[in-house]
């Protein structure tokens, strides 16, 4: 392979990796937003029920 061809191949691979990295960042950002929304919902539900009450699975009979 000629040196210029090798350089072009490496540049192409780097561009592909950068695109993939950007996609992964976007996916992780969406996941983080979703997790925060779920955490807020859980906190709101717990506040409605009384935050001192243990989860039903830990209530002794």
UniProtKB/TrEMBL annotation:
Judging by the UniProt lineage, the source's domain of life is Eukaryota
Keyword Coiled coil listed? The answer is: yes
Q: Where does the record place a coiled coil?
A: 7-41
Q: What keywords is this UniProt entry annotated with?
A: Coiled coil
Q: Please report the name of this protein according to its UniProt entry.
A: Uncharacterized protein
Q: What organism does the record attribute this protein to?
A: Gymnopus androsaceus JB14
| Lineage of origin | Eukaryota, Fungi, Dikarya, Basidiomycota, Agaricomycotina
């Amino acid at each position: 392979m000629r040196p210029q061809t090798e350089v072009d191949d490496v540049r192409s691979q780097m561009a592909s990796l950068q695109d993939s990295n950007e996609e992964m960042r976007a996916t992780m950002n969406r996941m983080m937003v979703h997790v925060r929304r779920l955490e807020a919902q859980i906190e709101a539900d717990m506040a409605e029920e009384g935050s001192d009450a243990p989860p039903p699975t830990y209530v002794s009979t």
